[in-house]
Design a protein that fits this description.
35% helix
Length: 165
């Protein structure tokens, strides 16, 4: 690089990737019927707890409201969001410096988990879903594209908010 040219700071990138087997092993579901994984590369180094906060808790109020409404429409049995072991109603199943795992069950026949795991160059976010009946499978098949779009958007906004601090 020419020393007279200013260096550019590249924007973080969000990419959907195949689910790494070692990430799948972190799920406590008895069976995983659906899984996806996204990475955020080039973002500030955050702990999994900081990524969780930036992605969900620090999202604009209208976004958080829409998330809770969507999760409620899926029949998720959310707990009190103010509880110390909850994040917007999701139960904190596991939390340590390496990863955070959130869990929620649904009246419709889902069990879901969200994984935030620190990576050397950013974050791995994964969704795990166990579907306990044909209706749950049918509903999830319909909402999968929207789910992926929302996840990508939440992660991109969390990464961009870090750059503006």
């Amino acid at each position: 690089m020419n020393e007279t040219q200013p260096s550019r700071v590249l924007a973080p990138t969000v990419s959907e990737i195949p689910l790494p087997p070692d990430a799948r092993a972190l799920s406590t579901l008895s069976r995983i019927d659906y899984a996806d994984a996204f990475t955020v590369v080039g973002a500030a180094t955050r702990t999994p707890q900081q990524w969780l906060s930036a992605t969900v808790q620090e999202a604009p109020r209208r976004v958080r409201r829409r998330l809770v409404l969507g999760w409620t429409a899926l029949g998720l049995k959310l707990g009190p969001p103010w509880s110390a072991n909850r994040v917007l109603g999701w139960k904190v199943e596991h939390s340590d410096p390496a990863f955070v795992l959130l869990a929620a069950d649904s009246w419709l026949g889902f069990r879901g988990q969200l994984l935030f795991r620190r990576e050397p160059d950013g974050l791995l976010f994964a969704t795990f879903v166990e579907q306990t009946n044909p209706a749950a499978r049918a509903v999830w098949a319909v909402i999968t594209p929207h789910h992926r779009h929302v996840v990508r958007s939440l992660l991109a906004h969390a990464a961009s908010r870090e750059r503006t601090r």
